[in-house]
Design a protein that fits this description.
Number of helices: 2
CATH topology of the largest domain: Jelly Rolls
Helix content: under 10%
Number of domains: 3
Structural class: mainly beta
Largest sheet: 10 strands, mixed
Length: about 500
């Protein structure tokens, strides 16, 4: 009887505890049984911004890991210029990040992307931190697109936050794509890493495009290609947009390879790594410029100082000046000397050296500016120069002797000027990609070739001449100087 009473007292005392344990176990079972996608994302900035949403996506269509995407609102009283965005998830740092738009007025929304090389497991939770860096300008304006808040001025800021998000079982699905055939029509193999020019009228596909074409990506098989939009990068343009795309492997003689041009969602912009644009096309100079990834040599003269790893100066500050300020202006004030920037490192083989001239040379034809290829990097090196106001010329001594007319006249003024020195006695000039070939065996080509830009004087030189340009590049000379043919198939809509 005593034992029965003890049992009853035990049940009476601990029955509530047992019930609670049973309920807890049931809740835990239900939580485990539920799909993990019901767990909400958590995204919080500690100051400066309000985070509205977050998504972590596997980039099965982009070929490089995963992307953390957040939507944030500027909570600052002034204008901000975002220069970088980064994420740190499960002890892994993003390798690149950006926000678009990057310049915000109070209350405006931005979309930020952090790119990771890792591929997460669908449904797993990932947590860590997010960070935004840039410039804060206290003044406000109703016209944000004309606001003055440069990325290198104002007050530097860095805002952080915490995040927890699950990897979604979706990809950055493109809204459409076009298969492109790139055909080498020559009997010579096109080298791997060649730059392929792809042109199309943006207005044809404007329903799929972001206004600046920043959502366009190029692939060769599963691999994303580096691409750079040079001109007419506007979805409403009825003139050809010019993209330069760096190929992967060789294109054999009389053969073709397939590229694919994808249209990502219109919220996606250039990432500045795989997809970029010329420096003067973005709101902040060179914001998405990835020319160094696309071309074998590239300089956009960003900032206010010359990159000494790329260039050597001759006579600068003596007979003229070289001024760098998001572009470069080269001037001469002498009738007896030239101003020149010569490449410090030469290249093997044959390449086309090109520059985008914003200001044409001023002064008489005896003092002209242009782009040159020479057989050395010293001031006494010899070679050939395409001058914007006169002709393709022999240059006897790059920086200190007269140019001698030796080729066809290709008057340009402003725009893209180029030159290639294919072999001794064989050179070609390019005026906005239109070639004009000539022959002259005055100087040997040499083992290495060096690009140069500058203002050159002639026998009837003027004492005042200058040029301004915003980028210089080298690209591989195509087989026999003939670019591959490009054929577009019909666009395929995917969503």
């Amino acid at each position: 009887m005593a034992r029965l009473q003890s049992a009853i007292e035990f049940l009476a005392t601990y029955s509530l505890v047992l019930i609670i344990i049973a309920v807890v176990l049931s809740v835990l079972y239900l939580f485990v049984a539920l799909p993990q996608t019901v767990a909400p994302a958590q995204c919080t900035f500690y100051s400066g911004f309000n985070c509205l949403d977050a998504l972590y996506i596997i980039n099965s269509s982009a070929g490089h890991g995963s992307t953390l995407m957040i939507t944030a609102v500027d909570a600052q009283p002034g204008i901000v210029n975002i220069t970088s965005f980064s994420g740190f998830l499960n002890f892994v740092n993003s390798y690149h990040g950006y926000c678009t738009p990057s310049v915000l007025a109070p209350g405006e929304t931005t979309y930020c992307y952090a790119l990771f090389s890792t591929t997460p497991k669908v449904g797993n939770s990932y947590q860590g931190t997010i960070n935004v860096k840039g410039t804060y300008c206290s003044s406000t304006t109703s016209q944000i697109y004309t606001a003055s808040c440069p990325s290198t001025g104002g007050q530097a800021y860095a805002y952080g936050g915490g995040i927890r998000v699950q990897a979604a079982g979706v990809s950055l699905t493109p809204t459409g794509y076009i298969n492109i055939t790139v055909r080498n029509t020559q009997g010579i193999t096109m080298p791997g890493g060649s730059q392929v020019e792809i042109q199309f009228v943006p207005n044809t596909y404007n329903a799929f495009e972001r206004s600046d074409l920043g959502n366009i990506r190029f692939f060769q098989g599963p691999k994303e290609l580096y691409s750079w939009c040079e001109a007419n990068c506007n979805s409403l343009s009825t003139s050809n947009a010019i993209f330069w795309v760096k190929s992967q492997g060789q294109i054999p003689s009389n053969s073709a390879v397939a590229f694919t041009m994808y249209f990502e969602p219109q919220t996606n912009d250039y990432d500045g790594i795989y997809a970029g644009q010329a420096p003067g096309l973005s709101r902040s100079y060179a914001q998405f410029d990835n020319g160094a990834q696309v071309f074998s040599f590239y300089d956009n003269f960003q900032g206010t100082s010359l990159n000494a790893n790329n260039w050597r100066k001759y006579y600068a500050g003596v007979a003229g000046s070289v001024t760098v300020n998001n572009g470069v202006t080269i001037s001469t004030f002498s009738t007896t000397k030239a101003e020149l920037l010569a490449q410090t490192t030469g290249f093997n083989g044959t390449e086309i050296s090109e520059a985008n001239f914003i200001y044409a040379p001023t002064g008489s034809p005896g003092a002209s500016g242009g782009i040159m290829q020479q057989n050395g990097s010293s001031s006494t090196a010899n070679g050939y120069i395409f001058t914007a106001d006169s002709a393709l010329s022999v240059q006897s001594g790059a920086a200190n002797t007269a140019e001698l007319s030796a080729g066809p006249v290709l008057t340009l003024g402003t725009g893209v000027m180029g030159i290639a020195w294919a072999a001794t006695g064989n050179y070609v000039a390019y005026s906005n990609y239109a070639p004009s070939q000539g022959t002259d065996s005055t100087y040997p080509k040499g083992t290495l070739t060096y690009a140069a830009i500058g203002v050159f004087y002639g026998t009837s030189g003027t004492s005042n001449s200058h040029v301004k340009l915003d980028w210089v590049r080298n690209r591989i000379y195509p087989p026999n100087g003939v670019a591959p043919t490009i054929t577009f198939n019909t666009i395929v809509q995917t969503t």
